[in-house]
Each structure stands twice: as structure tokens, then as C-alpha cells.
Amino acid sequence: MRHLERSASSLDTIAGHAEHVCSVAEGATLPPGIQAVSSSWQRSAKKYRLDPLDSKAPRILTSSELKQLREPLGKLIFSAQEEMDELYKVVREAGYTILLCDSSGVAVAHRGDDARASQFEYWGTWLGGVWSEEVEGTNGIGTCIVEERPVTVHRSQHFRSRHINLSCSGAPVFGVDGRLIAVLDVSAIDPELSERAHALTGALTIRSAHAIEERFFREQFRREWIVAVAPPERDAPGMLLAIDNNQRIVGANRAARTSLMLDDRGLRAGTSLWSIFERDVDLFRRRDRSDISARLLIAGSNDSRPALVTPPDHLVSASSTPTNCNLHTRPRLGSIDISMLPPAPQAHGGLSPGAMRRLREYVEVHLDESIDLSMLARVAGLSVHHFARQFRQSAGVTPHVYLTQKRVERAQEMLVQTDLSLAEIAFTVGFFDQGHLARHFRHMLGTTPREFRWSQR
């Protein structure tokens, strides 16, 4: 028995949507509301060779298939439970389901109305549903995985005509190594749902994904100090650092790795926290069993950030109360009270013209390699502690931002002057992958690498 017909969609509408998708995929002028998913439409049509008129239902994995995928993610699923419950309380009355999907797009955990389970299974928005972009085309889960950014796909923004009554918002969840491990998604089957109303749900999904990511990070580093650094703007991901008793950084989330130029090699080598921030060892001498408010100055800049320092779990749990035992893993990046923090310290200094020239030359030659803060400091002839501060004074941006700018500039040149694929260009200019290049390219230039290349030819 079919549980739901496409109540608002005639065959003409479906055919019209398919024609519209194909025209955009072939390079037609982008209409309003499509820019955010146009690259995905093009991938779906040209790379995956999907048919927008394909009416096949999404695949639902069997229990045994699902079990094999869930087992490696057991700790993440456990960490996500509370956040998924809280999000579901907010969106359940609007008929949403919540899916936690693995990095291949399979829903490994969910929240939804069991009375409507057969309906959700028909649409694929249920436990075991497979939503990779390669299989289903543009959608909030699969496209989020490919582009590694929050993605909202409302009704006709989907690639496949079958999905034009669906609205979904996916937000990435990154692991302690900075790589994508899951997507949190909210989906509704409602042809009357407005884009504005669904956008509000998307914002809630991003916030919950950040909380899941933070809780999982804290679970993995329960025995360490956790430094939570507030993001520079609301709803952006904040930095999380795990610090041992010698104030060495032993763990960093994706935001910290990106902002502070940290990588696995530097973490294994035992990078000191004080090579990144101005020294304040008193923070780690206190024996508070609650969070310690602080303001940290990024070395080499006047950029200070409010932060909360959480002591190791064995210190917090010494009082043995349930509240304190849960303190270490409770997310709090989104609730750091800036007004209660001490005033920001000031930074001074600047690099000599000769040091700046050596740095520019070094970056030009080694742009395709992994360049960390310690390498640049050696080229400048300074300690890491002083280098970043003086670089910011001279260049006006942090070393990480400078490197990113140079990589995007080199990518622009190669997009115009060569026929290399986007993946090859990304690797050549020092980005992790094509998605990494696309995110920074769009952020700096307001367009995608592919759209930029087309505009220059």
C-alpha cells in the first residue's frame, strides 16, 4: 500500500522540475534560490549521471547491514543521544524526523514518530536510509558530506523530482581528528512547509551538530584539561583544545586545527599551548572543580578570545556528585558569557622587511606542502611564541589566513591557465581535497572554483 501520494505535484510539475534541473546542469543562468545547490546539481547530472525523473525509492538497509555500520560509531551515537532528544522535542510537532548519518550517508540513529514509521520509510527518512549524493542526488545529507558544510535543501532544490515535497537540513559533525564522521539531519515531508520556516530548523540543526561534536570531543579527552575558545561570530564553530598537565596540546577539533595551523604531526610532537597563546600557567594550577573563565590572546595578534577551561574529569569527579561528573562532557561553547570575562591583554611588535620577504618567498615555493607555524617561525628567525604576534602586526592577518589567501590566489591562476581537475588543483595548492578548496574559495570570492573557471572562459 502506498502511504503518501505526491499531493501537491502533478506530472507536469515533476517533468518541469526535471527539465529545470537539466538546464542548470548544462550551464543555464542560475535562477534565485538555486545558487547554493547548483554545484551539486551539476555533480548529480554529470559525475553521477543520475536521472531527475527516476522514481525509485531510497534504499533502507536491513538490520544486519545497519548493525555493521553502527558498531564503529557506538561512542558517537551515545554522545549524540541527549542532543538529538533535545532537538526532537523542538521539531517533533512540525512532523520532522531527525537522522544521524555516517560519512557514507546512511542513517545510523534517528528520532521520529513511530506511528508514521512506514511513511518515513517510504520516503527513506528513517533508520537505515541511504542518502549519499552519488545515489540520491542533491539532498541535505549527501551534499553536506561532499561539501563538508551545513546544507539546507528545500523541496524543488532537490535534484530528483521524487523528492520535491521533502525539506531537509544537514549539518556536519567532525571527529577529534578534524575529519567528517557524521551528519545530523532534520527532514520533513510537507509540501506546504515554507522555506523561511525550514530555515529556522536548519539553524537549530547546526547548533545541535556543534554540541554533538563538542560532547564527543570532551568524551574522548576526559582525562585532559579542555580549553573551549569562543568563536569570533555567533553560530560559527568554536575551538576545542585538549591540554595535558605540561600544557601541551594533545587534541584539537577542526576549528582549532584550521585557525591555529595545527595538524597531527604537530600534536604528536607535543605543541605547547603557549606557542599559540600568551602564557598564563596559573590557569592550570588552580584546583577548581568547575569551569575557569579566561581571556586568551592569540600570540602575534591583538585578537583575544573569551574561553572556558575545564579541569580533567578525575578532578571534577572528586566530589562524586552526578552534576559534577557530567560537567566535563557538557557542551558550553555556545554559552560562554563574554561580559563576565577579564579585559583583553595587548600585543606589540612587527616583523622586519627582510623577514617578511623570506616568508613570502618560502610560502611561494612550498605552497603545495603542509606548512605549520613552527616552520614559518624558523624562516623568520624567531621563536614560535613571538612569531605569530609579529606576523599579524606586519601582515594584518594571522599566518593561517595569509596561507589560505595565497592558496586561493594560486588556485585562481591554475583554474584560468590549466585544464587540471579541481581535485588536482586543490592538492597542488596545498588544500586537503576539492571540498576544502571549494569552501575557502567560496568564502573569499563568493563563488565556487567551477563557476569561476566557467566565467573566465
Can you walk me through this structure?
With 457 residues, the protein is an alpha+beta fold. The protein contains 19 helices and ten strands. It folds into three domains: 63-217, Beta-Lactamase (2-Layer Sandwich), CATH 3.30.450; 221-340, Beta-Lactamase, CATH 3.30.450; 353-455, Homeodomain-like (Arc Repressor Mutant, subunit A, Orthogonal Bundle), CATH 1.10.10. A hairpin with a 6-residue loop joins strand 9 (292-297) and strand 10 (304-310). Helix 1 crosses helix 2, helix 14 crosses helix 15 and helix 16 packs across helix 18. The longest helix is centred in the middle third of the chain and has 26 residues, at 195-220. It starts with 10 loop residues before the first helix and ends with a helix.
What's the gist of this structure?
By secondary structure, this protein is of the alpha+beta class. The protein contains 19 helices and 10 strands.
Question: Which short descriptors sum up this protein?
Answer:
Beta-Lactamase; Arc Repressor Mutant, subunit A; 457 residues; alpha+beta
SSE layout and pairings?
Blueprint: H1 11-25, H2 35-47, H3 63-70, H4 74-91, E1 97-102, E2 107-111, H5 117-123, H6 133-136, H7 142-147, E3 151-154, E4 166-174, E5 180-189, H8 195-220, E6 225-229, E7 239-243, E8 249-252, H9 254-260, H10 264-269, E9 292-297, E10 304-310, H11 313-316, H12 322-325, H13 353-366, H14 373-380, H15 384-395, H16 399-417, H17 422-428, H18 434-445, H19 449-455
Antiparallel strand pairs: 1-2, 1-5, 3-4, 4-5, 6-7, 6-10, 7-8, 9-10
Helix pairs in contact: 1-2, 4-8, 14-15, 16-18, 16-19, 17-18
